[in-house]
Specification:
Blueprint: E1 26-33, E2 39-43, E3 50-55, E4 65-68, H1 76-79, E5 94-98, E6 108-122, E7 125-126, E8 129-134, H2 151-163, E9 174-181, H3 182-204
Parallel strand pairs: 5-8
Antiparallel strand pairs: 1-4, 1-6, 2-3, 4-5, 6-7, 6-8, 6-9
Amino acid sequence: MSIRKLPDARAHPWHGVSPGPNPPQLVTAYIEITPRDVVKYELDKVSGLLKVDRPQQTSSSPPTLYGLIPQTYCGTQVAALSPETEVADGDPLDICVFSERPIDRADIVLPARVVGGLRMIDGGEADDKIVAVLANDEIFASAEDLADLPIRLIDRLEHYFLTYKLVPGRDHPVVIEERYGREHAWRVVEAAIADYKNEIVEREH
């Protein structure tokens, strides 16, 4: 009886995928949630599978694709860019990607060009949301900075994060301190890549 060789396992979306072809400007985004989702999906850090984190308690849904930048980590260097707190959330760096054509599936990777971000504090921890556009998008690819995007779309994105953890009868832990442009966003991405190398890779060795 011959033994069938099993195919190689797929790459872990956080650890086994490059952060991008030219970070911090052009990055890879692993998508966890689409604009149609009213369930919060999240990468399981151990298995690399996409899991259900929680159903949304409100009717709010993200106006963009929402996921993470591989091989990033929100640690000490990311926290240093957020003066209201001394710690970051210890997760991969979040990214929100605008696309003119609807992409209705998650658990995919795509090229994204960084144009800005939201400096968010969640439960006293830095939890930045990088804002990007699909790199080869017919409409949004012309945007160079956050100010080039329609302000109402950024308003909706901010509203999503200000409501996505709302639970009736409980205090809301999320505050958005500011919106920032691409240059600060690039610094956040660089800090998260450095934190990954210093606090994940070095720790494993």
